[in-house]
Specification:
3-stranded parallel sheet; 3 strands; single chain; 42% helix; 18% strand; globular; alpha/beta
C-alpha cells in the first residue's frame, strides 16, 4: 500500500474488498469489519465474474442477468454481516477475463 505523504496519516474512507466466494477470502471479513468501524470507513464488496461476452482480454460489455444475480447472491451474506455490525457497505460487480485487471479498474473508480 502506497500513500501520498499528505495521506499517510489519514485512514482510508473506503475499503475495496474483493471476494471470490471462498472461505479463505471470507476470512478477512472480521478484520475488515473491525477496521471499518474503528475508522468510519465504507466497505465496497467486489465480486469479479467471468467475461461471458467474449473470452479474450478486455472488459465485458453485456452479462446475462442470471450471472449477475448469482454473483450478487454470493455477496449477500457478507453484505448482511457487515451491515448488521453497523458498517456502511455496498457491492460492486465486475466482469473480465482478468480478475486482477477488474479489481484494479474498480479500485480506481471507487477512490
Amino acid at each position: 500500500l502506497l500513500l501520498a505523504e499528505d495521506e499517510a496519516h489519514r485512514p482510508p474512507r473506503r475499503l475495496l474488498v474483493p471476494l471470490d466466494g471462498s472461505a479463505r477470502a471470507d476470512g478477512v471479513l472480521p478484520l475488515v469489519t473491525a477496521f471499518a468501524l474503528a475508522h468510519a470507513a465504507e466497505v465496497v464488496l467486489l465480486r469479479v465474474g467471468p467475461d461471458l461476452a467474449h473470452p479474450g482480454p478486455g472488459p465485458v460489455t453485456a452479462v446475462p442477468e442470471a450471472c449477475a444475480r448469482e454473483l450478487e447472491a454470493g455477496l449477500a451474506p457478507a453484505l448482511r454481516a457487515l451491515r448488521d455490525a453497523g458498517v456502511r457497505a455496498t457491492t460492486r460487480l465486475a466482469y473480465d477475463s482478468s480478475p486482477a485487471r477488474a479489481i484494479t479498474e474498480v479500485a480506481a473508480a471507487v477512490e
